[in-house]
Each structure stands twice: as structure tokens, then as C-alpha cells.
Specification:
homodimer; about 240 residues; Jelly Rolls; Arc Repressor Mutant, subunit A; 2 domains; four-stranded antiparallel beta sheet; 7 helices; about 35% helix; about 20% strand; DNA-binding
DNA sequence: CGTGGCTTTGAAACGGGTCAAGACTGGTGG
DNA sequence: CCACCAGTCTTGACCCGTTTCAAAGCCACG
């Protein structure tokens, strides 16, 4: 899993940061950035490692710099639902609360840009650009969570899998590249995200491939020749954004 | 449905507002309140009326003063999922975006305290107390949405219904009153919220009553003698807040 | 005393879960 | 270089919970 062939040397200078323009610091001016620069620290986890356990203290806020983290919520008997998938530039943490309701796990090798919670809360008070951006990001997350509620409550297994693949292709293909991507998570994690079992995910992947909706390249690589077909399989509105 | 026997005369003065201490204006000082006072307007809808259609312009932000509104998201073929249930003090609107992705419907007779979008956005810039509170509320909504994802993805029909009833009882029984409440929505709306069919909701309500977990009083009234039993039926962690 | 909307109940069908093998992949050590 | 192994994924057969389809009951209201 440690496929970190290009271990991109993390810059300590914010202005060269790969997520600079999309993260919680996106709207900061140079002087604000230098404040951030002074209080941030980087930390990395290997794929599979736990970042924080459900219900434990979370004494930092952070941005995903590189890799993929998952948020999951579990019931006593072990049933588990993923409630968030954090990709580079996404935010982790909950200002005003000192523990997390979710288990945070590194799905791939992961690097976070972290701030102590107290320092970050001071930042929120003093730096409107950070608070504004955080509100914007929280509202985007809320929209995404609600979109996922529609998927979990009403979509069929086939539509669920197709929707997930489409989302990954869209996030990977930011500016009109080819519709091809590496899945950042295992089948198991996909099942946890989609409210399915791993067997059902596997069967639907096979069915979508058999039907010519997607092509696979190894276990993790996916692509689609006809994004419209995939969007249709995902049960998307015809007027939905025809990206990818 | 127009059971508005106590048509509480809405005060125009914020300081006497029933949701004053929990809404987006909760942290405002007297002088800030007077600014709000000047730009707000009230508007009411009858049960069943549509406030805004999915995808239409939403040129205001608002707080629920009285009644209950629902947010729903639909697919082309008509499948519908409720993604939010707004009770008094809850916030409606999306600063920074001019249209809504959800259909907003009055589930009961409804009164909103509204602000023009532009005026509200100005308020956000000038009144940190409002912006702070809005961020806090957005993060609470996000937690609630994620909790609902666990329900939609992993809970059984019986657990879903029990969870909903428990949530209603908890919100109605704010400070240790008896565990009794009126359901603010129809069976149909419950089904839409829980990702079930109306028939399944009805069957599970019957089963919970038969099993002595709840008692019903007419179609809308519910109560429970043993909140622990209901929490268990809802699949809650033993260490979950034992409220109600 | 109908009428229409909402709710309950029943019987049958079906989608996804469960259980159980088996196949593929990448890494390790002989 | 190949055999082995553990982890991951795929496939098959069967089962069960929820949906679907259909009909009847209840209630408020005119």
C-alpha cells in the first residue's frame, strides 16, 4: 500500500503549498499566511493507521495536505458507516468542541497540516478570512452530507457504486483531463461509505464493467469511455453538471 | 391540519422572541438586536405549502419561529429523501449561494423570521456574533446529518423508526418534562426522512406499540414509559446521552 | 352521511445480506 | 526464480427484511 513513489518533499513555506488555493487558508493574505506558517506542524500516518478514535479528545484542527482520510461512525455491535471522505485540502476538526464523534483513519498514506486547537480558535477570532472560508467549507460539507443521505436512503446498490466512481473521477479530473483515476480506498471502505456489504460492491463493480459502463485497470484503477453512461447508472438528473 | 388554536401573536420586538436564545441571533447584544429588528420580516405558510422549490432562487435567509419545515432532495423518477427537518430556532439559507438545492416545505403551519440575502450577508460581515453562531449551527447541522447517515446506511426499519421517535421526544422534552410529544409530520414524511416506505413505517409503529416500547395517542401523539427501552430499540450506544 | 386524505394490514416479489468457497495480488524467504 | 502466504477481492447459493401491490379502515370535514 505504501505506493509513495514520489514522496513529495513537504514545503514549510505556505506560499508553495499544494492545497494553498483550496484549503481553509485559501483566502489569506501574505501577512496572514506568515502567522499560519509559524503555528503549523506537519504529521504523517501510514495507510491503515488510526488518527483519532471515536469519542476521543481531538486537540487540533488540520488540513489534509496529501493522501486520504476517512471519518466513520459505529454502533455497539460493530455496524459501521463512513460519514466523510477527506481528500487533499479538506478540513478536519471541530472548533468549539474538544472531542470527535468520529473515528478518523488514514485510508492511504496521509499528511496533515495541523494547528493546536487553542491557536486555531484564536486564529478564527482574529482572522476573518479564515473564519469565512471555514464557514463556506462547513456549508459545502453539509451539502455533500445531504447529497449522501439521498444516496444512502434511496439509491440502489448499482446506483450507489456508480455514484461513488463518478465522484472519484470528478475529483481526480479537475480540469478536463481523461476520465481516469485511482480509487483511494479499498472495496471494504467503499462498502462502509455506501452502506453496502463488500460482496455487493464487488458484484456491482463487475456488473458495471460487464455492461461497458466502466473499465478497470488492476484493483484500484478505473476509467470510463462514456461519462454520460456512468452518470445515468448513478441515477443523476439529466441536468446535473455534465462534468467528467 | 390547521390546528393553530393558539395563534401566538408574533412580537415584533426581538427581545421577546421565543427563539431568541437558540437561533442565529442567540449571541447578539442589545444594539445588534436592534439592527436585526430593523431588517427582519415575518412570513407564514400553511401546512403542506411549498416555501421554495428544489433548484430555485433563494433570496433570503431565515429562522424558524414557529412550526416545522422540511428539506427534501429528489431524483428524476420521483424518489425523494428528506435531508433536513427544521424546528423552531433552526436556520434556513445558504449565505454565498443564491439558490437552494433542496425543496423547502411547511410540514405544519409555519412562521419564518426572514432577512433579505444581501442584508444578511452584510450582517455576517459586520456582526461577528452572528457569523460565529452561524458557524456553530452549521457544524451542529453537519453532525446531525452524519448521524443520519449512520441511520440511513446501517439501521434496520425498527431502529430507524425508534430513533426518529426518540429524537422527537428529546427535542420536545427539553428540560425533564414527561416523555410525551406530538409528531410534527405525517407517516409519509417520516418515511421520506427515514428512507423507508410509508407501509414499513406504519408496521414498525404498530410493532413498537405492540411490544410496549411506546404508547400512541391518536395519530400524532406518542409517549414512552421507559425511555431506555426506546433507546435500546433505536440501537443506541449504552453510553449515549440518557436524556428523555 | 358521503367523500377524500391518511393510515393500517395482508400477501407476494425482490434486492441485498449472509455464509461459504475460491481466485487473485503482492510480498517474503528458501 | 519460484513456492508460499496473508490479505483482498470475486463468485455462487440461499435467506430474510423491506418493498410492492392491493384493499380495507379510520377520521375530519363539508
Amino acid at each position: 500500500m505504501a505506493r509513495r513513489d514520489s514522496t513529495l518533499r513537504i514545503e514549510t513555506d505556505c506560499s508553495a503549498c499544494p492545497i494553498r488555493h483550496r484549503a481553509v487558508c485559501a483566502q489569506c493574505e501574505p501577512d496572514e499566511l506568515s502567522v499560519l506558517n509559524d503555528i503549523k506542524t506537519y504529521r504523517s500516518w501510514k495507510a491503515g493507521e488510526t488518527v483519532v478514535m471515536e469519542g476521543e479528545p481531538l486537540d487540533f484542527a488540520a488540513s489534509v495536505v496529501q493522501g486520504c482520510a476517512t471519518l466513520t461512525r459505529s454502533m455497539e455491535d460493530g455496524r459501521t458507516q463512513m460519514v466523510g471522505l477527506l481528500l487533499p485540502s479538506d478540513f478536519l476538526g471541530r472548533p468549539g468542541r474538544d472531542r470527535t464523534a468520529y473515528q478518523v483513519t488514514a485510508a492511504t498514506d496521509l499528511t496533515l497540516c495541523m494547528f493546536r486547537r487553542s491557536a486555531f480558535e484564536a486564529l478564527l477570532r482574529d482572522t476573518p478570512h479564515v473564519a469565512d472560508r471555514l464557514l463556506e467549507m462547513a456549508l459545502d460539507e453539509l451539502d455533500a452530507a445531504r447529497e449522501w443521505m439521498l444516496l444512502l436512503g434511496r439509491k440502489t446498490a448499482r446506483e450507489k457504486v456508480a455514484t461513488f466512481l463518478l465522484m472519484i473521477l470528478r475529483r481526480a479530473t479537475l480540469d478536463g483531463g481523461p476520465a481516469r483515476a485511482e480509487l483511494p480506498i479499498t472495496r471494504d471502505a467503499m462498502a462502509t461509505y455506501l452502506g453496502l456489504t463488500i460482496e455487493t460492491v464487488s458484484r456491482q463493480m463487475t456488473a458495471l464493467r460487464r455492461d461497458g459502463v466502466i473499465a478497470t485497470d488492476g484493483l484500484r484503477g478505473i476509467s470510463t469511455a462514456d461519462p454520460g453512461l456512468l452518470a445515468e447508472a448513478a441515477g443523476e438528473d439529466a441536468d446535473g453538471a455534465p462534468i467528467v
